[in-house]
Amino acid sequence: MAIFHYHDGELFAENVAVAAIAAAHGTPAYVYSRAALEQHWRAFDTAFAAQPHLVCYAVKANSNLAVLNVLARLGSGFDIVSAGELARVLAAGGEAERTVFSGVGKTAEEIAYALTANIRCFNVESIAELERINHVAGEMNKVAPVSIRVNPDVDAGTHPYISTGLKENKFGIDINLAPAVYQQAAAMPNLDVVGVDCHIGSQLTSVTPFVDALQRVLGLIDTLEQQGISIHHLDIGGGLGIHYKDETPPTPAAYAAAMQSLLQGRSLEILLEPGRAIAGNAGLLVTQVEYIKATDERRFAIVDAAMNDLLRPSLYQSWMAIDPVQPRQSEALNYDIVGPVCETGDFLGKDRSLAIAQGDLLAIRSAGAYGFTMSSNYNSRPRAPEIMVDGDSVTLVRARETIESLFANEQILQD
Ligand SMILES: Cc1ncc(COP(=O)(O)O)c(C=O)c1O
Ligand SMILES: N[C@@H](CCCC[NH3+])C(=O)O
User: Fold this and answer.
1) What per-residue confidence (pLDDT) applies to 156?
2) Which pLDDT value is given to residue 166?
3) Residues sharing a CB contact under 8 Å with residue 186, sequence separation 6 or more, in sequence order
4) 4-32+280-406: what fold?
5) 3-state secondary structure string, 206-225?
6) Cα(329)–Cα(349) distance, rounded to whole angstroms?
7) How many CB atoms lie within 10 A of CB 50?
8) Strand 29-33 relative to strand 347-354: parallel, antiparallel, unpaired?
């Protein structure tokens, strides 16, 4: 049985009617499925079972403590990009020793915090960052485990805003320059070179760019071996796409098979950093139609969720499925699904054929990744609650923000 499915004419999350969740917690609201999170994480873990590996879930996709805790209980590692994400992992019961620290802009404070926590590895993105980590580790009398994120100059074939492995992107170190940078790193007294890292982009729907990148990275590892630098782990990043509309991304098993065909005979531990493929289709955003408004040009369904709740359609023109929670039999008409925010770009879907009326609930699908984590308070809108379904049980895992909390840290001048 699909985890989000229709039964008796209404949408369910596991064994719970989405309309019942909306009635209890209001809208807009994020709804996650524990079973889906577990199933998606296990799909990666099982696919790579043939070799030493660690699935390091990319926290940025969905960093709710309950989500991180569900994955930590399975033995997940984590990929973080800030001190805040590390603090979340630790608060959720995850282990720093199973956590890698990515990102181009780590501050000295973040590096010190990660070293104190005993992080598994820093994925380093520049020479200046290597120098900073070496310096901070030295001051703390520590040796920092590092791997260098290399940029293999591979076209991931995805949206330009989420492609990261091209020379023109800010990420990583040019793979052609990497041997010299590894020599520099190896000579720094407070660094321990343990790995190579590569992440080429997000929402990839073909294995070809992954395979191309892996071939280049394995060539680098061979070069490094010849230069006396031995590599313990290879972090192949995240990026595997999901089904939003008509994509047919490779399954984790197909992805693993393609990668493993190149890895045979090598004694490398493989680290993975999937985010979207674990959390994306484990969540939806439920929203209510506030008004129907027709002009000469278009028909709008104005809903109570907006770009501040779910930015992907506005930011990337992403298409996300929008389904009625309790479908009607009436005639379907074309609607633009828009929010109350004062921006023309505030839309969740355009030209959608739907049979709906004022007051109806809609589910925006595939919203478990890069949904809540990219939300904001724009237009002074409190952030939506997050709710985890587990079989028959429903837990509010983050309460709806209150209006007072929006300005609790502000103050007015005294005179
Ligand atoms: C370094 C790094 N690792 C992992 C991820 C997770 O990517 P995805 O959610 O596409 O699997 C990202 C985001 O693209 C990233 O920048
Ligand atoms: N936020 C993006 C993905 C960015 C990946 C982060 N490295 C999305 O929603 O598709």
Assistant:
1) 74
2) 64
3) 193, 229
4) Lyase, Ornithine Decarboxylase; Chain A, domain 1 (2.40.37)
5) CCHHHHHHHHHHHHHHHHHH
6) 21
7) 13
8) unpaired
Binding-site positions read 239, 273-276, 312, 316, 343, 370
342 is catalytic: yes
Ligand 2 pocket test, candidate residues 60, 80, 197, 285, most atoms within 8 A of CB: 60
Cβ of 149 below 6 Å from ligand 2 = no
**Closest ligand by atom to 151 CA:** 1
Q: What is the mean pLDDT of each run of 10 residues along the chain (415 residues)?
A: 91 98 98 98 97 98 99 98 98 98 97 98 97 98 98 77 66 94 98 97 95 96 97 97 96 97 94 98 98 94 98 97 97 97 97 98 98 98 98 98 98 95
Residue set of the binding site for pyridoxal 5'-phosphate:
239, 273-276, 370
> What pLDDT is attached to residue 171?
82
Establish whether domains 4-32+280-406 and 35-277 are of one fold: no
Cβ contacts of 170 within 8 Å, gap of 6 or more: 104
**pLDDT for 339:** 98
Q: Which CATH number fits domain 35-277: 3.40.50.11270, 3.40.109.10, 2.30.30.90, 3.20.20.10?
A: 3.20.20.10
Q: Alpha helices, DSSP H only, in 75-207?
A: 83-91, 108-117, 127-139, 178-187
Q: Answer whether 28 contacts ligand 1 (Cβ < 6 A).
A: no
Q: Where are the domains of the chain?
A: 4-32+280-406, 35-277
Write b or e for each residue in 9-46: b if 16 or more Cβ atoms lie within 10 A of its Cβ, otherwise e: eebbbbebbbbebbeebebbbbbbbbbbbbebbebbbe
CA of 394 to the centre of ligand 1 (A): 29
Distance 292 CA to ligand 2 centre (A): 31
pLDDT of residue 155: 77
pTM of this prediction?
0.97
Q: How far is CA 98 from the centre of its chain?
A: 17
244 within ligand 2 shell (Cβ under 6 A): no
Q: By C-alpha distance, which of 14, 31, 4, 47 is closest to 240?
A: 47
Q: Please indicate whether residue 98, judged by its CB atom, sits closer than 6 Å to ligand 1.
A: no
